[in-house]
Specification:
80 residues, 4 helices, 2 domains
């Protein structure tokens, strides 16, 4: 059974954006809010372990492209 929620103190700019988006999507404000909430809750959220694994993968791909010495020299040259 559907439930009711009352939102208070919605910032004016957010309210206006929701109204505009609802009009663009030809939905009521209520349906636009429900759609936004649904999309947010169903978003593919990565676990911390997945984020760390991806960071390690990127690090391995980039490893060896520049040495620490080359990085320090580039920083020093950029400051001159």
């Amino acid at each position: 059974m559907p439930n009711n929620i009352t939102l208070r103190e919605v910032p004016d700019d957010m309210y206006e954006k929701l109204l505009k988006q609802a009009a663009i999507n030809q939905r009521s404000l209520e349906n636009e809010v429900i759609t936004c909430l649904k999309q947010s809750l169903e978003a593919d959220r990565k676990t911390p372990d997945q984020v760390i694994a991806r960071a390690k993968q990127i690090r391995l791909q980039a490893k060896g492209s520049l040495s620490l010495q080359e990085i320090c020299e580039a920083i020093t040259q950029g400051r001159l």
